[in-house]
Amino acid sequence: MSMYGEYDFLMIESLLGDEERMVRDSVRTFVRDRVMPIIQKHYRAGTFPTELIPEIAGLGLLGPTIQGYGGAGVSHLAYGLIMQELERGDSGVRSFASVQSGLVIHPIHTFGSDAQKERWLPGLISGELIGCFGLTEPDFGSNPSGMRTTARKDGDGYVLNGTKRWITNGNLSHLAVVFAKVEGEGTPEKPHIGAFVVERGTDGFSTLEIEGKLSLRASVTSELHFEDCRIPADNRLPEARGLKAALSCLNNARFGIAFGALGAAKACFFEALEYAKERVQFDRPIAGYQLVQRKLVNMYSDIVQGELLAFRMAELKANGQLNPAAISLGKRNNVKVALECARTARDILGANGVVDDYCPMRHMNNLESVYTYEGTHDIHTLIIGQRLTGLAAFSG
Ligand code: TGC
Ligand code: FAD
To answer: 258 in ligand 1 pocket by Cβ < 6 Å?
Structure first.
């Protein structure tokens, strides 16, 4: 079921072009037929459904906005809708695709040389190569500028040392896009940050999967270790200059999350709506009680407003006018909406809401990670606050 058709009071469907509708419908069918039957099993086991990777790639969902190298070259709105449909299934499946597209394919496409693009993009887009994005470190999450990972120029290569933590797709990856301070570049107080592609199998590079997650269980999250890890100079992305390059990649991923989170919210809303119409207490369906209707109406209202925000973001992005503060507005608002919808849906389902035969608690647990990654809710509060006041409140 969708927010379209009989539920589309604002005729949002009419904002979609034919290609966007087709893309959305094909991903929706894929999620219904291929993700939903296996997601409970993977979530319980704490495994990512790697068996779906060829189909995800076959549908053109990896690097879908890229023109050339095998990319479908779809619109930004279509990209957002892909993220939304994937996250309707599970945030872990959306994370897999958004990291590969927004944080691996995008930086190589934007900051790489022609030779680097030829070398890695076709494999990443066809799903034969999986990548990850290493920015966060154990002691530097919200404040990546403090990173300790270093790259030292040594002959015709660089030697990397350091640790990246909380890295989506880490243990699945054939290559990692890693940010490091380059010794001897910039000033001692503010060393230059560069981006490097490190391939699995390189001596001194290892990955360790993080166990015990109660959120995003159907997603692989890892630590990346670099110990005197020597890579060829050709593996440095030449156009990635400074932290700005890393932060600009986040714009893409945050844009996708603004759409994606609403997919999780919709899944929760429709499950709660159906349940409330069926569930009888005190001789009436609970959907007939005013308090339950208010919960459903609040969910619906928040989702529709979030959707309008996301669609406007896509419009601005298509025109090259989407600024970081607007992206923060979308990520911050829509993830909060989704988390609240998941909690409300869980409530409407009563005791049934706490088991994984129903989706709200799985989505709720996932959304706790989404609330934190790609800039925490409060970091986005501060980004918007800075834009409004002209004053940065990130540090004392
Ligand atoms: P600051 O001095 O503000 O900025 C440094 C330079 O970067 C520019 N800039 C941006 N450029 C493009 N897009 C953006 N969004 C940008 N934000 C900042 C800025 O203009 C400046 O340029 P220049 O030319 O002056 O050098 O940097 P700061 O160190 O004060 O930090 C600002 C802050 C806190 C907003 C930033 O560090 C931040 O966003 N922190 C949050 C970190 C974060 O989001 N990490 C995400 C890691 S990846 C991840 O979570 C993947 S989850 C998996 C999935 O997506 O599924
Ligand atoms: P911290 O920065 O320590 O923040 C802790 C708390 O302090 C938060 O509430 C925060 O809002 C608050 N806080 C911090 N600074 C301020 C301030 N100045 N003012 C007010 N409050 C503040 N990273 C990657 O690089 N690649 C990935 O693929 C990736 N995948 C991830 C997958 C998962 C499942 C998770 C959970 C995280 C992932 N991350 C990834 C890391 C993620 O980006 C970080 O967790 C996030 O940026 C926050 O950093 P932190 O966890 O160190 O929290």
So the answer is: no
| Positions of the chain with pLDDT under 70 | 1-4
**For residue 104, what are its two tokens?**
């691996």
Which single residue is written with the structure tokens 């890393």?
A: 246
Scan for tokens 């999967």, then name that residue. 209
The runs of H, that is alpha helices, within the chain are 18-30, 36-45, 53-58, 76-89, 91-98, 106-111, 114-126, 243-278, 290-318, 324-348, 360-372, 377-389
**Residue 4 confidence (pLDDT):** 62
From residue 112, alpha-carbon distances to 75, 106, 121, 247 in Å are 22, 9, 10, 16
Mutation test of ligand 2: which of 166, 215, 332 has the most ligand atoms closer than 8 Å to its C-beta?
A: 166
Q: Taking the domain 131-240, which CATH number applies?
A: 2.40.110.10
Which letter does DSSP use for residue 100 in this model? I
**Domain 5-126, CATH class in plain words:** mainly alpha
CATH of 244-389, one of 1.10.150.20, 3.40.50.300, 1.20.140.10, 1.10.10.10: 1.20.140.10
Give the mean pLDDT of the chain: 97
